[in-house]
Amino acid sequence: KAEGHLEGEKVENPDTGLYYDEYLRQVIDVLETDKHFREKLQTADIEEIKSGKLSRELDLVSHHVRTRLDELKRQEVARLRMLIKAKMDSVQDTGIDHQALLKQFEHLNHQNPDTFEPKDLDMLIKAVSARQE
Predict the structure, then answer these.
(1) In the chain, where are the structural domains located?
(2) What angle do CA 52, 55, 61 make, to 5 degrees?
């Protein structure tokens, strides 16, 4: 087998070390199933991605893709809620500020836990970019 990858073979990316790495990968995988968005992603430069210009393209993806992204977001919110509950249970402090805990999770809009919107994609991109700087 040659060193190069075969057409259609999935290339495994190394773990980013982000606590939301799995969510990030799933969002990217779903977005890449939309032909229009995949083309925009391939032609976008890093500044277009970081500025949020690419996030606006989310309004043009297929209904199926948006539905899947909504589902992924709900799963991620549920995961984060479990983490918060576990943290609360371990501390047993009744004075915990839930909003302050949620603000730690800057990779999604916790104000809207049900649907994946352009703001969510923008926040995810900005969170990843901030970690890489």
Answers:
(1) 20-131
(2) 165
